Amino acid sequence: STKEFCHCDQGYSGRYCNITYECSCSSDSICLNTSVCLCPLNQFGSNCYLQHKHCQSNKNSCQNNGKCIPYNNHTNHDDFFCLCPANFMGSHCEYQSNRININFKNDSIPSLIFAHYIISHDDKRHERILRFKKIPFDQDSIELSYTTPFNLLFIEFEKNYYLTVVREKTIRSEKISTNINQDYKCANITKLLNSTILNYSTLRRLKYYQLPCIKNLRLKCFYDDTYMCVCDNNRYSSCFEFDHVSHDCQGNNYCKNNGSCFQDNLICPSTSGCICKKCYYGSKCELNTIGFSTSLDVIFGYHIKPFISFTKQSTPVKITASVTIFMLIFSIINGILSILTFKSESLLKVGCGIYLLTNSIVSILTITIFTIKYFQLIIFQMKSITNTSFINFSCILTDVLLKILLSFGDWLYAAVAIERTLTAVQGIHFNKSKSKYIAKYVIGIMLLLISLSYIHDPISRRLFNDDDEQRTWCILEYSTSLKKYDKFINLFHVLTPFIINILSAICITIQVFRIRVKTKKKSTYKKLLCIQIQQHKHLLISPCILIVLSIPRLIISFLSGCMESVRNPWLYLTGYYISFIPPLLIIILFILPSRTYKEEFVSIIRKINFFSK
After folding, report:
1. Where are the transmembrane segments (predicted)?
2. Which of 63, 359, 470, 543 has the fewest other C-beta atoms within 10 Å?
3. CA nearest 185: which of 206, 214, 168, 164?
4. 269 SS3 class
5. Helices and strands (H and E) in the chain: how many
């Protein structure tokens, strides 16, 4: 059961705040009861009327907006310290902190780095301080700020160490700029010494640690399980103990998808972060780029900058927006002309015409939903709309509609291929009335089954707020069994129409070739094949082009496995856009190659020109 309590205003106490009392504390302090006063930072005394002389507002001893914190309120000595803002240090915040600018190559920019600061001492063991910092998506460099003087700085990412800064004597307020490259990569000792030496005990093996620096003049540093060694200018190695085990959030791993959780300090951590496994990313590894389930959010979302207007977005965003608008305009023109062509009574006497008329309508819907999806992603990531209910509704509905419409379009093309194959095989025995009757039922059943096959998608979607990146993501959370089912059903809806189109093209070619061979035995096989391909090109062009358009999607899924870097999404983005090309090509694939469809299409164009005049 829940319990309630009352939080009383100053001057009132009791269980229900119905008891009054007189407060003798200063006006800017808080009365806890009649005898206890909670003083503000720079005041002290039983009633908080005394002020610390060094921390008075008009005598603040801290510079650069540092905050004065008194140690001892009962003496007049300089018992205070300054809490400095970022980028300042010193007892009075009088110095700028050391700033280190680290640049990365475009092909090796990590999402998170560890900075190992090594501080040497004359009279005691060296000190290591671990910090980590996330690298923003649109940056290829990072600036580290550090207030304590240090001697060595190692940058770690992807389980590799790089010797970045070496300082025998520390310099206050120093500005350093350096590049991360292979020349400063620390080598593992197993790659430098032979197996005989490596099998020695630790102390005996250490005697040979001078050899790597002497033999490898370009070597800067190396390490084993216990020590880190640095090669000096005289090619001697200086080794010190180095703990490679990073903190793991003390067992409280909040990272998703088996990501590794890290904290900057074991005793009193101030920040934490996640290192994601391959194919996963996001501040908590919440996004994945595996297989056909990859959505536009995952592929392209990070390229859209939050809180920045569209005119100031990156060039890739503007280019994809232009391409999407062009696709919508082209789709509307293509779809309307196709609908006007296939609604002819003569063309609707067979199932093929019904399939193509339905697909003409579906093509407009598909590209329209895709355009809505694209610009919703732009608006949501720019934070132009923040209504959670609306974003959640879009998250649940838009992606699954796109999947259903794309698959429905592919299956309608497959139905056309099957009917054309039957026409070629059966010839004059093909029953047009039966074909028309079956098509009406096939379309409804097909749409129902496809919709049911994707029912797991909307119920597994939810919004995820990434506070670090200030973004809201639409993510899928599948159980292990649902992941397997999702992979199967996506492959099924792509592979099966693909195979049907291949078999259709083969069967039509074989059938018409057999017929011609029987009637013209004197002609050569090669000549006959060319003649038949020319005469039946309207039956072969559409399945062949659909096969070609399906190949990139299959290659991307099977060979690349996943999009490994969110910074280079172009392969997946291209594959994603290619999947929307078939709905744009009804006129090119089916109308222009066919003499019957083309005549009806030309008639429609003439009527449009007549009315426009």
Report:
1. 319-342, 354-379, 391-416, 437-455, 491-517, 538-558, 570-592
2. 470
3. 164
4. coil
5. 15, 27
Do 312 and 430 share a structural domain?
yes
Q: Give, in order, the Cα–Cα distances in Å from 180 to each of 119, 155, 184, 345, 553.
A: 21, 9, 7, 70, 36
User: For position 248, what pLDDT does the model report?
Assistant: 67
The pTM (predicted TM-score) of the whole model is: 0.75
Residue whose structure tokens are 């207030």: 147
Cα-flanking dihedrals φ and ψ of residue 490, to 5°?
Answer: -70, -45
Q: Do the Cβ atoms of 61 and 70 come closer than 8 Å?
A: no
Give SS3 for 571.
Answer: helix
Contact yes or no for 309/320 (Cβ under 8 A): no
Number of domains in the chain: 3
Angle between helices 351-381 and 388-426 (to 10 degrees): 160
Say how far apart CA 93 and CA 85 lie, in whole Å.
8
- Mode of pairing for the β-strands spanning 19-20 and 12-13: antiparallel
- Structural domain range at position 483: 294-612
Is the predicted pLDDT of residue 471 greater than 90, yes or no?
no
260 and 337 belong to one structural domain: no
| Residue 328 and residue 263 share a domain | no
Contact 164/146 with Cβ under 8 angstroms? no
Residues 548 and 419 in one domain: yes
Torsion angle of alpha carbons 514, 518, 520, 524, nearest 10°? 50
Retrieve residue 517's tokens. 């061979």
- Residue 336 pLDDT grade (very low, low, confident, very high; cuts 50, 70, 90): very high
Cβ–Cβ < 8 Å for 279, 289: yes
Residue range 52-96, pLDDT digits in tens: 776 766 666 788 888 888 776 555 556 778 888 878 888 888 888
Q: pLDDT tens, 127-153? A: 888 888 888 777 888 888 887 778 899
